[in-house]
C-alpha cells in the first residue's frame, strides 16, 4: 500500500532541476510509477543513491537526457526488479519501437546494469532470428524496396517459436547471432549463444504488430491521407506481409507484457534511421547510405500499415518526439 501522503512527499523530494526538464507534469510521472507498482519516493531515493549512480554512469551514452533516464530507463528497470521478485517461472516481455527510436540502446543499458546487480535479465533482438543469408535471399527476393532484410517474413519463425517455447519450459535460451555487416551489408548468421535468464526481453520494430483483415481499405486510406502513393507492387507485397504477420502473432502470445516506445509522429523514424546508420558507419565502417538507406526507410514506411505499428496493444507506453524526448507515458495498473 502506497503512503497516502506520497503526492506531497514526492513533489517535495523530487528535485526541480530534473523535473523541469520533463515535457509532462510531475503528477503524471508519479501516477505512471504507481501504475507500475513502484513507490515513487523509494524509487527516487534508490536511483539518486551515489553508489548506484556510480555503477551505472559508465553505461550511458554521451549527452543522454534526464527524461530518458528517469522516465524510461530507471522506471523500466525498477519494474523489472519488482517483476523478477514476483515470478516463479521464466517470462518474456516484448519491447516495440520504430527503427532508430533507441530501443536497442536501452536494451544494451538494461543488459549492462542487470549484470552489475546480478539480475537474471537478458535482452535479445528479433533481428538475431533473421533467416540465414542464402535462405533470406530466396525468401525476400523481388520485394518492392529491394532491401536485404527487415520486414515480416525475413525471420526464422519456426526456430523462434522453438527457442521461446524451450525457454519458457526450461529457462534455457539458445539463439543465433546475426551480423548485419557480413556479405557486404546483406548480413548473415555468425554463431550461437546460450542464456539462462529469468526474464527475457525480445525487442523489435514491429513486435506486437497484429495482422489486419482490411488491407485493401487501409491502402486506399494510405494514399488519400498519408500521401504514401503506394505502387501496385507495394500493395501486392503488403498483402503477403500480412499473411506472414499471422505467424508472428503467435509469437506475441508468448509475451507476459509488452512495452511500446511509441513515436509521436510516424515519420520521426526517417531521421532516427538515418542517424542510426550514420553511427554504424562511424563505429563499424559499414551501414546503409544513399539509395540503400532511402529504400530501407521506404520499406519501414510502407511494408506494414502505419496504424498497426502506432496502435500496438501494449501494457506500458512511452511516447517520444523527434528528438527522443519523452512527451507522455502511461500504463495499465500492475498488481504483483
CATH homologous superfamily label of the largest domain: P-loop containing nucleotide triphosphate hydrolases
Q: How would the global form be characterised? A: globular
> Percentage of helical residues?
40-55%
Terminal Cα span: 12 Å
Structural class assignment: alpha/beta
Note the main sheet: 6 strands, mixed
* CATH architecture heading of the largest domain: 3-Layer(aba) Sandwich
Radius of gyration: 20 Å
Q: Count up the helices.
A: 14
Which percent range describes the beta-strand content?
15-25%
Q: Uncertain spans, ≥5 residues at pLDDT below 50? A: none
Question: Quaternary arrangement of the chains shown?
Answer: single chain
Order of helices and strands: HHHHHHEHEHHEEEHHEHHHEE
Sheet with the most strands: spatial strand order: 2-5-1-6-7-8
Descriptive account of the structure:
The protein is of the alpha/beta class and 336 residues long. It folds into 2 domains: 1-86, no CATH class; 87-328, P-loop containing nucleotide triphosphate hydrolases (Rossmann fold), CATH 3.40.50.300. The protein has helices spanning 6-13, 16-19, 26-35, 40-47, 50-56, 66-85, 103-116, 133-139, 157-170, 215-226, 232-252, 268-284, 290-302, 306-310, and strands spanning 91-97, 121-125, 173-179, 188-195, 199-204, 257-263, 316-320, 326-331. Strands 2-5-1-6-7-8 form a 6-stranded mixed β-sheet. Strands 3-4 form a two-stranded antiparallel ribbon. The longest helix is centred in the last third of the chain and has 21 residues, at 232-252.
